[in-house]
Structure formats: structure tokens, C-alpha cells
Amino acid sequence: MHLTAFTDYSLRVLLYLGNQPENKLSSIKEIAAIYNLSTNHLSKIVFELGKLELIETNRGRNGGIKLKKPANEINIGWVIQQTEENLELVECFNKTNNACILTAACRLKHVLNEALVAYLDVLSSYTLEDLLLNKEELQSIFHLEANKN
Fold first, then answer.
1. For 97-126, how does the pLDDT look when each residue is reduced to its tens digit (9 = 90+)?
2. Rounded Cα–Cα distance for residues 67 and 145 (Å)
3. CA–CA dist 94, 88 (Å, integer)
4. What residues pair up with 56 in beta bridges, in sequence order?
5. DSSP one-letter string for 92-127
6. CA 133 to chain centre
7. What total of structural domains would you count in the chain?
8. Residue-wise pLDDT tens digits, 27-71
9. Any residues with CB less than 8 A from the CB of 94 and at least 6 apart, and which?
10. Could you tell me the CATH number of the domain that includes residue 98?
11. pTM metric for this prediction
12. 23 is in which domain, residue-wise?
């Protein structure tokens, strides 16, 4: 299973915001600099995370972004399922465009589906809070990266 860059960076944004003090607003520019991403690309990610009600966005001069929910309420498996456009591991998972001649008799698709379900089950057993148990270590990395820019 390969996660898209969109999902990867969505999780990174959540990790960054989850590591900030509760009422601190962060900027897209600040996060883009930390992760060396374009602000344009990050804006799209932040927009989607806002639509998913994971982050709160405040526009204007004193605006910024922060987590909308507590970290223990943000389920990693759910985030991945919302940000990945396609969890079809093989062609036969797509009922519309499946042209595989083995589909009717193939047992591989069942094994792959079982693996996908297990993968998502494991991810769903974690929250953002679980990924922030090493806040001090993450904070020092974010601080080092911010000072590079």
C-alpha cells in the first residue's frame, strides 16, 4: 500500500498542529517552510483538512490554523480513508473498470482485500495523540527546521 503525497502531508500538518500549544495559530507559510513544501500545495491540503473539520482556519491579519478537535479524537485510519482518493490495490477492486479475466475464479483479490482491511484496522487503532507521545523530540525537530529557513 502506498499513500499519496497528499495524505502524507495531511498527516504531517496534523502532527505539526498537534504539537503546538492549544491556542496557538500557525500559518501555512510557517508549515510549508518546515516541510519544504509549496504554500500553494499546502493551501489545498489545509482546505481539505478544514472541510473534514479536523482543523480550524481563521483568515485575516491575525489568522492562522489550529486543530479543531483534540488530538485523541482524530483517528489516523479515518484521516487516511478521507484523504486517499483510491484504496483499490488491484484492478479487480474497481467494479467499473475491471477487465481482468481471472476475476470470477481469483482468490488473490480476497487475500488482498483481507490485507487492506487489516491495514486500515491497524491505522484506525491509533489517534493523533498516539503519534504525539514524543512531543519534545518533535518540537526540537520543528525548531531546528524553522531556524534553517
1. 888 877 788 888 889 889 999 999 999 999
2. 21
3. 7
4. 66
5. GG-TTT---TTTTT-SHHHHHHHHHHHHHHHHHT-B
6. 17
7. 1
8. 999 999 999 999 999 999 999 999 999 999 988 888 899 999 999
9. 88
10. 1.10.10.10
11. 0.88
12. 5-148
